[in-house]
């Protein structure tokens, strides 16, 4: 039996910091399963093109483990070549790197470590919102340059208090973002999601559901994206929808880069239609050096809060998703039932309601 793991290289950092479990060097604890002497493990970061380790080893692997931070993109074409594949495990949350419809068709199960990094991401979202609204990054860069011109940064800095915040997706992360924003005394918390929250959960985070996406974005000063990537969210935030945003709104996306049209976001920031854009997810990962989101700016030269994809891979999160990956593998090898919440695709059927209404 072959287990293939596609992880990112940690290099020297992973040698010096053993808690960087999601790396090729430290191999996620789950790969140390003992009682399977016939297990052949292949761990690599090499994932692009027909000669990559990913494409060479997927053809006879039974289990694929990959992280959303450095995803092996498992297309329908590759699934059709992967004759032995039975289980894909996402070490983290978000399994859109697998063609999930093809996994259903080919009876390949897809599991993730549900909940493992939702607090990590929610904290990052709150940080991104504050960073943009308060114009923090240009202010810090000014200090590093040796300058001191308060008016240049204060002219685009605001309070979060009194603003309207909206989340696209009010699941585990979106809800936790609203929970964490309660003490900021925002004017309103809105959410756009086909799944309605129970009234007491709405009241606990002062949330109001808005059913029409254009109506929703037109009311928000800050929009945060917390829905999975699927057919219903790919390219959702495009030129047309951006034109319905409040002029000068802030947009934070830590869900998946491809939910936003990259060029349309860069153009909206350049024109000032968006005052800021922040997040850690990109439509291609690693992002090419010339990706417009690396350097895009608003008309005042700020408004860019982009980082590499790391909000859900803090050392605390890595401990949790490594333990969760190990548990999923042990359940699989020992024929035990999996945690229902971890199952995205069961054998031949969708098991989650989070990837669109079907
Ligand atoms: P969840 O499954 O708890 O919640 C997702 C919510 O989105 C659900 O309430 C669902 O109904 C809603 N939704 C789905 N399609 C929608 C649509 N078209 N419009 C509005 N709402 C929609 O998932 P969780 O744990 O909150 O994670 C959400 C996503 O965040 C993941 O799928 C992943 O893509 C991303 N993520 C990013 C991380 C990072 O490191 N940047 C780490 C963890 C997750």
Automatic annotation (TrEMBL):
InterPro entries per record: D-isomer_2_OHA_DH_cat_dom, D-isomer_DH_CS, D-isomer_DH_NAD-bd, FDH_NAD-dep, NAD(P)-bd_dom_sf
Binding-site list for substrate: 93, 117
E.C. designation(s)? 1.17.1.9
Instruction: Domain (D-isomer specific 2-hydroxyacid dehydrogenase catalytic): give its ranges.
Output: 32-337
Domain spans labelled D-isomer specific 2-hydroxyacid dehydrogenase NAD-binding: 127-310
Q: Which PROSITE patterns match?
A: D_2_HYDROXYACID_DH_2, D_2_HYDROXYACID_DH_3
Q: Which key words tag this protein in UniProt?
A: Cytoplasm, NAD, Oxidoreductase
GO biological process terms, semicolon-separated: formate catabolic process
In its UniProt record, a GO molecular function of this protein is: NAD binding
Q: Where in the cell is it found?
A: Cytoplasm
* Location of region: Disordered: 32-52
Function description: Catalyzes the NAD(+)-dependent oxidation of formate to carbon dioxide. Formate oxidation is the final step in the methanol oxidation pathway in methylotrophic microorganisms. Has a role in the detoxification of exogenous formate in non-methylotrophic organisms.
Q: What PANTHER family has UniProt attached to this entry? A: FORMATE DEHYDROGENASE 1
Q: How does it assemble?
A: Homodimer.
Q: Which family does it belong to?
A: Belongs to the D-isomer specific 2-hydroxyacid dehydrogenase family. FDH subfamily.
Q: Provide the protein name.
A: Formate dehydrogenase
Tell me which species this is from.
Lentinula detonsa
Instruction: Name the lineage.
Output: Eukaryota, Fungi, Dikarya, Basidiomycota, Agaricomycotina
